[in-house]
Each structure stands twice: as structure tokens, then as C-alpha cells.
Design brief:
single chain; alpha/beta; Glutaredoxin; 7-stranded mixed β-sheet; 26 strands; globular
């Protein structure tokens, strides 16, 4: 019998390693295993959106991602002859007003290197074979490719093990949804004839969508739908010639593929569980939700699952908060998963319309609507995941008085706090923002749960705001509502 750890993580992709990094940052012991012998060598998930970058910034290790990635400042939607819509990220309210284009193999490298610095090694060629939730702990059987098995006990088990999750199957959860009846082609390689290079380029052609995503200068990912799938047989991966034929037919002219790192055919699955945990086992990332790649939200949504769960687990494991804090994880993240699934599915349906009349109407509506800056700005916020919030969470409450001022609604309960929060290395604490005496009193009463951040800002100084460790407003009241803030914290605190 191996020694106990706080958390076993099954799956060492971007979500599993984000969770492992966050937990170890908070001083929680982890064991992370993956059936793969090594990290992926494919570009796969390509983008880190602004909200995810903000979370890595607050965690203290965003710099390595930034140096390895390329900034993309928006997207152009074209019919091949004219640009119908421009979406700019330049004016979004974030310290990262862009999408960071970075291939998944680089994202995984950075995460694994940070884990190693924290003294954690990913256990590779190891599969979670089974587990039993014993009520006070989880007993898991791990199997190496050599056939050797090991039994490990832990306080908690997290399934970050993808669409075929062993943890999800072990929990008996259904993965409701569908596989779209269409085939798609993908090429990752060097292209010429595409400008500007810091934009996503989307072409809506009568024969289907053609979309380009920048990776590094001159290197792009292109995806295209090629119509209704024929039977259940997997379509053969495309050739360079087949990709070039589609570029010539659907693009703006002069776009040429020179070579390819990766050519593939795929189909889109849209599936999700109805709950993200049971007992001492949780799901995150593709184990809980998979959807269309439209919008590039999948990996980011999974990473944000990890950030959400990590701070809550750390406070419960550390005895700072009641175990009931963990009940909010599934409620919050399942609602986000539903929204991302719906948005991605809707974007895909709009992009692959085949009816000429419907295509003409779509193009006219989009061209007209995106003439209004407000719509373009709203679309940018949705892509960047800045409009994600938790208004209906049990952790979201209003104070006795409505907060003074709006400042972009950042003080609204459940909303993302748009300003950079003070660093609180190695601790998961709520940041109390407001008058010095009020926030100091809260920090003195709840030292393990609250970091005081006094402010003299004309608006923030009139309010008393509690911002969660993941940067969302939990409590918002007036500066005089110290009793309400204290009651909020007391309801969470273990003692």
C-alpha cells in the first residue's frame, strides 16, 4: 500500500497539469498520472484566451506562456470577396487584450516544467484502472504498461482524463450529446498569401467554412468542413493536394500551403455530463464536456474548471472552509459548460449552412449587425471569456446596500473583478477591497480566509467587496456593510 496523498489526478493534459500546478502552489500534495508515454507532439488546442491568461497571471507563471506564444488581436469573417465582420480584441477590458496563440505541445511543456520545479513528476505509462470511494478517502488502483499494479489512497480523485474518462465511467455518469454528421479536415503547416498574420481568418463559402488560426509567423492551422459524413467509417486523413484544392476554392485567392506538420480528418462531438462530481471524485475538462472547436473554448474552459476547483479543494483540505464549499463547483462549472456548448454549437451551425438562401441571409445579417461597435465588442468579450460569471452561485450574495458606482459592473456580485488583484503567494484567500479599517477587521477575524486590500479609489473606497481567489466577486455591499461581509465569510469558514 502506497502512502496517502491529498489528491490523485488522472490525466496529465493541459487541464490535469493546470490543476496539479494550482494545488501544489497551495501546498496540497498530488499524484498525477497519464497513460501516454510522453506529452503530445501535436498543436491540438491552440489558444489561451484573455481570462485564462489573467488566471495564470495571478498564479504567478504567465510569463513563460507569453514568451512562447504569438498575439492575435482579432478575427475577420469573409465570404472570399469582402470582409463581412471584424472582431477586435484590442479594446476589451483586460491586461491581456489579445488571444495568445500557442500550440498545445508548448502549453503542456510549460506546465510540466513548472510542475517539476514544484517537485512533482508526471507518472507516465500509468492508467487509472479502478477506484472505490470509501467515504473518508478514495482507494485507486493504478496499472503500469508493464502490467504491474499499485494501490494508492487519497483524500480526493479528479478525472482530467478526457472524453473516454475512466473516472466518469467509474461514477456511472452518462455523457449526453451527439456526434455531428459531418466530416472536417485539418492541416497544421506553413502557408503564404494570408494577411494580416495576427488575425484569425474565417471564410464562409457556399461549399462550407474555411478557417485559419495563426500559430507562429507563417505557420497556421486550417480547418474546413467537407459535408455530410458517409456512414460510420472514419474518413482518411487529407493530402496536401486536397487541402490546397479547398484553399483555392474557398479562400480569397493566392493562399498556398507549403508543407504540413499534421494532417487529419475528424468529426465534432458535443457531449456533457449533468453533474461534475459525486462524493470524493470530480471531473474537469473533456472528461466533463466536449464540444465544437468553434471559438477555441474547450481547453480554456477545462483550465478554468481546474482553477475553480483548486482553490476550493485547498481550503477544504486545509481545514479553512467547510466541505460544503465544494458543492459550488459542479453548480458553477456545469452552467459555464452548458453555455460554452450552446455557443460553440450555434457558431458551428451558422458556419456550415448549405442552403444558398440561408447563407445569403446570414451574410447580410452579420454584415449589418457588425456595423455596430457594441456587437463586435460583445463578441470579443465572449471569445475572450471575460463575460463568464457566477450570478446564480451559492457563493454569490449581495450586501445590504447596492454598491456605489458601476466601474463597468466589476463590483456586481458574480462578475469577474477586472482589476489585477494583489499577489497572495501560496494561499487561496478572498481579497477584501474597501476602506482600510473595514478590510483590516475582516482580515483579523478570518486571517486564513481574507487578504486585506485597502483602497482610496473614489468608487471602490465606498464599497466593501470580497473577491474570490479565482477573481470573481462573491460579496458586494457598501462600506458600511461589514456585518454582511462577516456573515458571508462565517458561512464559509470551518470554525
Amino acid at each position: 500500500m502506497a502512502g496517502n496523498v491529498n489528491v490523485i489526478i488522472s490525466g496529465a493534459g493541459p487541464v490535469g497539469m493546470t490543476l496539479a500546478n494550482e494545488l501544489t502552489r497551495y501546498g496540497i500534495s498530488v499524484r498525477i498520472v497519464d497513460k501516454a508515454a510522453e506529452r503530445t507532439d501535436k498543436s491540438k488546442a491552440l489558444v489561451l484566451w484573455s481570462r485564462t491568461l489573467e488566471l495564470f497571471d495571478h498564479a504567478g507563471y504567465v510569463a513563460d506562456f507569453l514568451s512562447a506564444g504569438m498575439q492575435a488581436h482579432g478575427a475577420n469573417i469573409s465570404n472570399g470577396k469582402e470582409i463581412m465582420a471584424r472582431i477586435s480584441l484590442d479594446d476589451i477590458d483586460s491586461i491581456y487584450p489579445y488571444a495568445l496563440m500557442i500550440p498545445q505541445n508548448e502549453t503542456e511543456r510549460i506546465l510540466e516544467e513548472h510542475l517539476a520545479k514544484r517537485g512533482v513528476t508526471v507518472g507516465r505509462n500509468i492508467t487509472l484502472e479502478s477506484f472505490i470511494d470509501q467515504g473518508t478517502q478514495v482507494q485507486a488502483v493504478l496499472r503500469k504498461t508493464s502490467g504491474e499494479t499499485e494501490t494508492v489512497t487519497a483524500d480526493w480523485l479528479i478525472g482530467c482524463d478526457g472524453a473516454h474518462s475512466v473516472v466518469r465511467h467509474g461514477l456511472g455518469f452518462t455523457f449526453d450529446g451527439t456526434t455531428q454528421p459531418s466530416d472536417w479536415l485539418l492541416a497544421d503547416g506553413h502557408f503564404t498569401g494570408l494577411d494580416p498574420q495576427d488575425r484569425l481568418h474565417i471564410f464562409w463559402h457556399k461549399e462550407g467554412i474555411l478557417a485559419f488560426f495563426p500559430i507562429v509567423q507563417g505557420r497556421w492551422r486550417v480547418v474546413a468542413d467537407v459535408g455530410v459524413a458517409e456512414g460510420s467509417t472514419h474518413r482518411a486523413d487529407p493530402t496536401l493536394e486536397e487541402i490546397q484544392s479547398i484553399l483555392t476554392q474557398r479562400g480569397s485567392g493566392g493562399i498556398v500551403i507549403k508543407d504540413a506538420y499534421w494532417l487529419a480528418a475528424f468529426r465534432i462531438n458535443e457531449r456533457k455530463v449533468s453533474q461534475y462530481n459525486r462524493g470524493r471524485a470530480f471531473l474537469a475538462g473533456d472528461a466533463a464536456h466536449i464540444h465544437s472547436p468553434a471559438g477555441g473554448q474547450g481547453m480554456n474552459t477545462g483550465m478554468q474548471d481546474a482553477f475553480n476547483l483548486a482553490w476550493k479543494l485547498s481550503l477544504v483540505i486545509g481545514g479553512v472552509c467547510k466541505p460544503s464549499l465544494l458543492d459550488s463547483y459542479s453548480l458553477e462549472r456545469s452552467a459555464v459548460g452548458d453555455r460554452v456548448l450552446s455557443n460553440a454549437g450555434r457558431m458551428t451551425e451558422v458556419a456550415i449552412m448549405r442552403n444558398p438562401i440561408a447563407q445569403g441571409l446570414r451574410n447580410a445579417v452579420v454584415k449589418f449587425a457588425f456595423g455596430f461597435p457594441q456587437l463586435s465588442h460583445a463578441a470579443a468579450n465572449t471569445l475572450a471569456e471575460l463575460d463568464i460569471g457566477y450570478p446564480n452561485s451559492p457563493l454569490t450574495v449581495k450586501g445590504a446596500h447596492h454598491p456605489a458606482g458601476t466601474k463597468g459592473d466589476k463590483t456586481k456580485p458574480g462578475k469577474r473583478w477586472s482589476d489585477r488583484l494583489p499577489m497572495d503567494a501560496g494561499k487561496a484567500r478572498f481579497t477584501a477591497i474597501g476602506p482600510a479599517d473595514a478590510v483590516a477587521t475582516l482580515a483579523a477575524k478570518f486571517p486564513r480566509l481574507v487578504l486585506a486590500a485597502p483602497t482610496t479609489d473614489k468608487v471602490d473606497g465606498k464599497n466593501l467587496t470580497l473577491v474570490r481567489p479565482d477573481g470573481y466577486v462573491g460579496f458586494a455591499g457598501s462600506a458600511a456593510d461589514a456585518a454582511g461581509a462577516e456573515a458571508y465569510l462565517a458561512a464559509l469558514a470551518a470554525q
